[in-house]
């Protein structure tokens, strides 16, 4: 007799119940993801349209990158619930497997279920599945597969059986640990989610809401956190897309579950906003506002790394796009703008040239001034102070709008120190994340951070305002 399966927790339950065309369950190691993905397939089979009265015929595809991984991990998880002797199981070692079972449907009739286990190996998905038709698919450790895996599978889903082709749902899903930052999971499900694709993100293993603790025990994740290096702890315990092996986070205190709002943040009327800017070939900007309770809120971001800022490198075009962003996110707000001091230099005054800072100021209508300091220690501390502060009621001292996906990724992993031969670099690596985070630091330096760090009264900034931009940022004269 097969024991009754219980979901590891609420996020896993929502994943199993999801009807999204593409869904992914991402969680810490040991959180029950693999079994949940497999059980979702069995439950989908019971929901499948009848092929004929009282009969549902279903073909469930389970995939991994390598067949050895399938045999070593995924198949044992399957057989713990559905033994080889239950129905007919075929397939030699190292080759695809098939498990055929007939299950009684709780509302009468039967489900004729074929489960196919396949490893992709060195093949492309289309080549590996040429001529193969299936109802739905589960991709275990999907972050390790090619970026096109889910898009390819969803095009093929719902083709079996042919008798109900017109009404078969089209649905595929995957499970994974928090991936490396450059994974397609980050791109397609976190930063810029594809339409119809949904990520189910289990809580950190250190959270009171951690899933599968009934199986693991209450202290399992805490013990793992003590023995794992930082880059593994983030991924396999805290469920944060992780660092590369030879890196250390500049802000290890950052926790998406604490520091990223679940709902959009609104501008508080009557309170200043602080805009920080970083210049150069890959410019960036970040907008802050301090709430009445002292919480610093990240409201908007602009980076050449993101879709909205891709290719926006010149100061004039950058200023145009920034003006549009500010008009949308902070209409009518008073904005204090401070930039990397080096952006005030480099112009040929004799030839009538303007600096980067001046050009962006012209396009946005802002009086942009140099930041108070370039000192990296002070900049880092200006952001760290609200990040590590808890307000009354346990509220985070720093909170990001959910649209600030690049900043969340930067703070979690990509704004990092490099480690060479066991020694950490003195300064963060210069990459896309450094430009965005440094822009944010300049804004916080102006707002309050530098005053607290340097132990002096807050300087009085010049008053600047932005409302509806004084120009059309997309007019021909700006092309």
How would you describe this protein?
The chain is α/β, with parallel strands linked by helices. It folds into 2 domains: 220 residues, Rossmann fold (3-Layer(aba) Sandwich), CATH 3.40.50; 206 residues, Nucleotidyltransferase, domain 5 (2-Layer Sandwich). It has 15 helices and 17 strands. The longest helix has 23 residues. The chain is elongated, with a radius of gyration of 26 Å. The N and C termini lie far apart (71 Å). The C terminus is likely disordered.
Topology:
Layout lengths: L9 H8 L4 E5 L6 H15 L7 E10 L2 H13 L8 E3 L6 E8 L5 E10 L5 H4 L7 E5 L8 H8 L14 E6 L7 H8 L5 E5 L11 H4 L3 H8 L2 H7 L10 E3 L6 H4 L13 E6 L5 E7 L5 E8 L11 H15 L5 E5 L16 H9 L4 E2 L5 H12 L10 E3 L4 H10 L1 E5 L2 E2 L7 H23 L25
Parallel strand pairs: 1-7, 1-8, 2-5, 2-6, 6-7, 10-13, 12-15, 13-14
Antiparallel strand pairs: 3-4, 4-5, 9-16, 10-11, 11-12, 16-17
Describe the structure using short key phrases:
479 residues, Rossmann fold, 2 domains, 15 helices, elongated, disordered C terminus
- CATH topology label of the largest domain: Rossmann fold
Structural class: alpha/beta
The strand count comes to: 17
Global Rg? 26 Å
- The tally of helices reads 15
Q: Runs with pLDDT <50, length 5+?
A: 456-479
Kindly state the mean pLDDT as a whole number? Answer: 89
Q: Supply the CATH superfamily name of the largest domain.
A: P-loop containing nucleotide triphosphate hydrolases
Q: What spatial form do the alpha-carbon principal axes imply?
A: elongated
Helical content class? 25-40%
The CATH architecture assignment of the largest domain turns out to be 3-Layer(aba) Sandwich
Q: Cα distance, first to last residue?
A: 71 Å
CATH top level assignment of the largest domain: Alpha Beta
């Amino acid at each position: 007799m097969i024991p009754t399966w219980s979901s590891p927790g609420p996020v896993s339950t929502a994943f199993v119940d999801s009807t999204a065309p593409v869904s992914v369950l991402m969680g810490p190691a040991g959180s029950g993801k693999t079994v949940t993905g497999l059980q979702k397939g069995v439950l989908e089979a019971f929901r499948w349209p009848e092929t004929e009265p009282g009969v549902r015929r279903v073909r469930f595809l389970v995939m991994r990158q390598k067949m050895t991984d399938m045999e070593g991990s995924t198949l044992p998880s399957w057989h713990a619930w559905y033994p080889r002797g239950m129905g007919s199981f075929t397939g030699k070692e190292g080759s695809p497997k098939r498990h055929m079972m007939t299950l009684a449907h709780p509302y009468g009739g039967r489900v004729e279920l074929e489960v196919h286990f396949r490893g992709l190996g060195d093949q492309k998905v289309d080549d590996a599945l040429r001529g193969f038709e299936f109802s739905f698919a589960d991709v275990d450790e999907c972050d390790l597969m090619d970026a096109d895996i889910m898009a390819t599978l969803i095009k093929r889903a719902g083709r079996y059986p042919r008798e109900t082709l017109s009404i078969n749902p089209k649905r595929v899903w995957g499970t994974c640990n928090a991936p490396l930052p450059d994974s397609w999971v980050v791109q397609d499900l976190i930063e810029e989610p594809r339409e119809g694709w949904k990520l189910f993100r289990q809580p950190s293993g250190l959270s009171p809401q951690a899933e599968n603790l009934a199986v693991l025990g209450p202290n399992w994740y805490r013990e793992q956190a003590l023995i794992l290096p930082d880059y593994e702890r983030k991924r396999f315990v805290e469920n944060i897309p992780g660092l590369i092996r030879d890196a250390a986070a500049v802000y290890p205190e950052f926790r998406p579950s604490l520091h990223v709002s679940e709902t959009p943040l609104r501008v508080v009327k009557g309170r200043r906003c602080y805009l920080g800017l970083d210049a150069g070939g890959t410019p960036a900007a970040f907008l802050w506002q301090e709430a009445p309770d002292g919480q610093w809120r990240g409201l908007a971001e602009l980076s050449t790394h993101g879709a909205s800022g891709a290719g926006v490198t010149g100061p004039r075009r950058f200023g145009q796009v920034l003006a549009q962003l500010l008009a949308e996110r902070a209409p009518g707000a008073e904005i204090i703008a401070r930039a990397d001091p080096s952006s005030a230099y480099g112009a040929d005054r004799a030839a009538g040239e303007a600096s980067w800072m001046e050009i962006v100021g012209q396009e946005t209508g802002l009086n942009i001034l140099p930041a108070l300091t370039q000192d990296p220690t002070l900049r880092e501390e200006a952001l760290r102070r609200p990040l590590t502060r808890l307000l009354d009621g346990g509220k985070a001292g720093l909170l990001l709008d959910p649209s600030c996906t690049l900043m969340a990724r930067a703070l979690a992993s990509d704004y990092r120190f490099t480690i060479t031969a066991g020694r950490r670099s003195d300064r963060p690596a210069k990459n896309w994340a450094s430009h965005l985070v440094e822009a944010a630091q300049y804004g916080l330096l102006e707002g309050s951070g530098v005053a607290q760090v340097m132990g002096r009264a807050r300087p009085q900034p010049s008053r600047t305002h932005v409302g509806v931009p004084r120009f059309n940022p997309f007019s021909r004269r700006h092309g």
